[in-house]
Write a structure and sequence with these properties.
Layout: E1 2-5, H1 13-26, E2 30-33, H2 46-59, E3 62-64, E4 73-76, E5 83-88, H3 95-103, E6 111-117, H4 127-139, E7 145-151, E8 160-166, E9 174-176, E10 182-192, H5 200-211, E11 218-224, E12 231-239, E13 243-249, H6 256-272, H7 279-292, E14 294-298, H8 303-316, E15 321-325, E16 328-332
Parallel strand pairs: 1-2, 5-6, 9-14, 10-11
Antiparallel strand pairs: 2-4, 3-4, 6-8, 7-8, 10-12, 12-13, 14-16, 15-16
């Protein structure tokens, strides 16, 4: 039985999600204590409960303490088997964060997904980022799976729906130190249909294309039916060896032009950094290099990186080495 300190480092939900993911993947039981102890709203929140439920369904786990507000969780995995998962995160809870937890153990069993919740969230990657950056990078090394956004969901009501299929696979050693030549820049300016009269999507698209003129991006303007008004702009780039992505989420009293400017400025910073991956991918790639081995470069070590390293080393006994070189950080396992 592995004992995990849920308050370690930044003490967020990433510790819970990755712990149950690795528990299912390795077959090792874990007891997580002091979950999110230092947070304003400590204990498990609805999106964490949903992630644990989803992983538990993959491996028929025995779980104790998986309810909102719980500070302690016992997760005893069973055998991973091909299955279908139908999960409602609740309100606008992040679908992307639930996907992150499922994607690791799903490498050992075919998984059909149906997840309801939020597709665009302020404090999490968008589902679009998982589609356009996370999965394409992993596919370079043997990952197998696809996800599709059926309906978008925004804060506060959510109501988004994502479906997908993840296939059993075996990863090759992951090596991305340099991105290589830029092949294309592209993105989506997205808004709910209630914002169509104000031409929010078109304005985000136009302003982003003006700022990023040197990169000749292809940006689509799209409207969607949703339970709550909302939107955002995602900008991605494909390189010879990697992908990067940025996202800005619509909020009250923020106009379309400022939203596009925020996303574009972050995109330019990511593009100009020599690292092979952007800052959002830094913590996501760590579990996979722990499993497959490899070397990757990232712009910086985030609090989520530190949390993930703590959990990975607990479950695998491997050390994730980190060193600074030429303005970036190199992770190896």
């Amino acid at each position: 039985m592995l004992e995990i300190d849920g308050s370690h480092g930044e003490g967020g939900g990433a510790i819970v999600r990755l712990s149950v993911a690795f528990s299912a993947f390795t077959g090792k039981s874990c007891q997580i204590e002091r979950i999110r102890a230092g947070r304003k709203n400590p204990g498990l929140q609805r999106q964490h409960v949903a992630a644990v439920d989803a992983v538990a369904k993959l491996c028929n786990a025995k779980v104790k303490g998986n309810y909102p507000g719980s500070a302690s969780l016992l997760f005893t995995p069973g055998e991973l088997k091909s299955t279908s998962i139908d999960i409602d995160v609740g309100s606008a809870g992040s679908i992307a964060l639930v996907l992150q937890a499922i994607m690791i153990p799903a490498m050992k069993c075919k998984t059909l997904l149906k997840i309801k919740g939020g597709t665009v969230n302020k404090w999490a990657p968008s589902v679009g980022y998982i589609q356009n950056v996370t999965i394409p990078i992993l596919k370079k090394f043997g990952y197998a799976g696809n996800i599709t956004i059926i309906k978008h969901g925004f804060y506060p009501q959510g109501g988004g729906l994502v479906e997908g299929t993840l296939e059993p696979c075996s990863l090759k050693k992951i090596n991305i130190i340099e991105r290589g030549r830029l092949l294309q820049a592209y993105g989506t300016a997205l808004a709910s249909t209630s914002l169509a009269n104000a031409k929010v999507a078109e304005r985000m698209k136009q302003h982003a294309e003006e700022i990023l003129e040197a990169y000749t991006p292809t940006i689509k303007a799209e409207y969607c039916d949703s339970s709550s008004p909302g939107g955002g702009i995602d900008i991605y780039a494909e390189y010879e060896n990697s992908f990067i992505g940025t996202c800005a989420v619509a909020e009250r009293k923020r106009n379309a032009e400022n939203l596009a400017k925020e996303a574009c400025e972050e995109f330019i910073r990511a593009h100009e950094n020599p690292a092979g991956m952007d800052k959002h991918m830094a913590d996501q790639i760590l579990p996979y290099i722990a499993i497959a081995g490899g070397n990757v470069s990232v712009p910086s070590v985030t609090p989520h990186c530190q949390s993930n390293i703590y959990v990975i080393e607990k479950f695998t006994g491997k050390k994730i080495a980190c060193r600074e070189e030429k303005g970036m950080l190199l992770f190896s396992a």
